[in-house]
Specification:
Structural class: little secondary structure
Strand order of the largest sheet: 1-2
Oligomer: single chain
Number of strands: 4
Largest sheet: 2 strands, antiparallel
Length: 145
């Protein structure tokens, strides 16, 4: 009897009134924060009152194929029209800036992760992360005399 009580305390019951299924791997709705079983985990399945469908379309110019900045208040077609009338110059979302550029002047790599040399505090890419590879200032100078 005690073992049976322990098993019931592991899972949680689905919050949908018509279900109430005991689920050992329950899902929490990110909108209403209630717990649901696998079958009712999506906001549509449990008719979540906190979930609202939003327009997730991204306006793209049919002429220049650039992504156009989206406003909540204005219609997408109007925004595309304003963009086209400006000569495809306004409302354009700029390209994201690349980060973690290699500090070696001859290299054009941009890394996903930053590397910082402990000796010279430069930011090399993964290929030039070793002191010998990025001509670190801390390396001893060997003379040929």
């Amino acid at each position: 009897m005690a073992e049976e009580a322990d098993l019931l305390s592991i899972g949680k019951h689905c919050n949908l009134a018509s279900c109430k299924r005991l689920d050992f791997l329950p899902f929490q709705c990110s909108h209403c924060k209630d717990v649901f079983c696998l079958e009712h985990r999506s906001p549509e399945e449990h008719q979540c009152s906190h979930f609202s469908l939003t327009d997730v379309r991204v306006p793209v110019c049919p002429i220049c194929n650039q992504i156009i900045n989206k406003s909540k208040d204005e219609d997408i077609n109007r925004q595309v029209e304003r963009h086209i009338l400006s000569g495809c110059k306004s409302l354009v979302i700029g390209k994201p800036k690349k980060s973690n550029k290699c500090s070696l002047k001859s290299c054009r790599q941009h890394g996903l992760m930053p590397f910082v040399c402990q000796e010279c505090n430069k930011n090399p890419c993964i290929r030039h992360r070793h002191t010998e590879d990025h001509l670190c200032a801390a390396l001893p100078v060997i003379s040929c005399a």
